[in-house]
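2024-03-11 09:14:02 INFO queue: dequeued item Pectinesterase inhibitor domain-containing protein, len=172
2024-03-11 09:14:02 INFO validating residues
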Amino acid sequence: MKHFSLNTLLCTIVVASIAIAPCESDDKLITQTCSKTPYPSQCFGYIKAVYDSKDVRDVPGLGIIMAEVLKLKAQDPKDILFVLLGVGKRPDIQAQLKTCLESYSFIINTAIPAAIDSFKIGKPRLAEDYANTAALVVSKCEKSFNGKSPITKENNITHEIARILGAIAKQL
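2024-03-11 09:14:37 INFO prediction written
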């Protein structure tokens, strides 16, 4: 009976080791990739927060995950801008709000899908260009309010993620 228990224990340890090994390598890949971005800890946190990141085995996959994070995070400022435009209580900033809304629509509807496609077809430079363009239009949005927009916090987050995405694409 002891022999059977020892074999069972050894098999359990081997199976557990095999199951744990991919998780360690995933964290290693994420850590190595994120360490080469302007915001390593934020990069790691954003990627690990996505459930599907556990299945990613390469840098292009991490780029796709980060692009999806950017799309998700860009939706918040877009929604806020849409509401602010609808309320219309501040006619003095309507033009800036509209321009920013157009920028976020571009990021969500054009830049992110194109960046994801670029990773999938092996054209990371295009993904980098789209990410850099997203960061640029968000900066322009904030500057149009002299750095005091109604979505400064959201602009900063979106800009940060776009820069991370560009840095990931640049590694390829």
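2024-03-11 09:14:37 INFO annotate: Residues 2-34 form the longest helix (33 residues).
2024-03-11 09:14:38 INFO item closed
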